[in-house]
């Protein structure tokens, strides 16, 4: 992946995202749409996975057939909203290894505070895809990537649903080597650090909390 930012404009992604943004969309509907959209975004973020071939026999003849190469990739959910994106991707890539980074946002300073970190072994040999639906200020995304690099990851991608220009700029400055894949780039952040027009609090909407 050479681009720092990939905006996935596929009609199915855009349509599903619009349904997710609508404030009357139910918790169950939001969760289902997130699962569906995560698989379409996963298709994009894994586009350049290394491939090799394997000798197989079809009912007709032998052939050298393409298969994924290298160690299993790692999905890292940035808690808690990342879990909604991760569930769908795991259906598509069931052998992926899974890590969790727990960060909450201090509502006054908007700075991330770490409360959990657990990732698989040998991060340095694997593609690592960090997932969080909302790239807002970029503070927690940058902090999560800092932690993953400290744990040895060298090949990291960041997958989100919505990105604010402020978050994209912050990530580009701190981690220019980490490509971002997103379904939309919204207008800006409001004073509380929420993306506008956005979709509200992604965690609250997928878990039915407030
Ligand atoms: N986190 C969210 O869930 N929503 C936003 O708009 C920004 C951060």
Automatic annotation (TrEMBL):
EC id: 2.4.2.9
Cellular component, GO annotation: cytoplasm
Enzyme class: transferase
Gene Ontology MF term list: GTP binding; magnesium ion binding; uracil phosphoribosyltransferase activity
Highest taxon in the source lineage: Bacteria
Cofactor: Mg(2+)
Reactions performed catalytically: UMP + diphosphate = 5-phospho-alpha-D-ribose 1-diphosphate + uracil
Activity regulation field: Allosterically activated by GTP.
Binding positions for uracil per the UniProt entry: 195, 200-202
BP terms from Gene Ontology: UMP salvage; uracil salvage
Pathway(s) this gene product operates in, as recorded in its UniProt entry: Pyrimidine metabolism; UMP biosynthesis via salvage pathway; UMP from uracil: step 1/1
Keywords on record: Allosteric enzyme, Glycosyltransferase, GTP-binding, Magnesium, Nucleotide-binding, Transferase
Keyword match Ribosomal protein: no
PANTHER family: ADENINE PHOSPHORIBOSYLTRANSFERASE, URACIL PHOSPHORIBOSYLTRANSFERASE, CHLOROPLASTIC
Family to which the UniProt record says this protein belongs: Belongs to the UPRTase family.
Role summary: Catalyzes the conversion of uracil and 5-phospho-alpha-D-ribose 1-diphosphate (PRPP) to UMP and diphosphate.
Name the record gives this protein: Uracil phosphoribosyltransferase
Lineage, opening ranks: Bacteria, Pseudomonadati, Pseudomonadota, Alphaproteobacteria, Rhodobacterales
């Amino acid at each position: 992946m050479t681009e720092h930012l990939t905006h996935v404009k596929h009609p199915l992604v855009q349509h599903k995202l619009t349904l997710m943004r609508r404030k009357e969309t139910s918790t169950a509907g939001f969760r289902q749409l997130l699962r569906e959209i995560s698989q379409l975004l996963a298709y994009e973020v894994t586009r350049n996975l290394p491939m090799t071939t394997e000798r197989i026999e079809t009912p007709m003849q032998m052939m050298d057939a393409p298969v994924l190469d290298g160690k299993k990739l790692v999905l890292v959910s940035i808690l808690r909203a990342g879990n909604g994106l991760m569930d769908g991707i795991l259906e598509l890539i069931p052998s992926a290894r899974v890590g969790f980074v727990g960060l909450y946002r201090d509502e006054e300073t908007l700075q991330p505070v770490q409360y959990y970190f657990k990732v698989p072994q040998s991060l340095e040999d694997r593609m690592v895809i960090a997932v969080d639906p909302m790239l807002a200020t970029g503070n927690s995304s940058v902090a999560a990537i800092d932690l993953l690099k400290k744990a040895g990851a060298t090949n990291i991608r960041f997958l989100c649903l919505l990105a604010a220009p402020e978050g994209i700029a912050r990530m580009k400055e701190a981690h220019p080597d980490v490509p971002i894949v997103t379904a939309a780039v919204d207008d800006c952040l409001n004073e509380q650090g929420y993306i506008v027009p956005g979709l509200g609090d992604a965690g609250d909407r997928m878990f039915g909390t407030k």
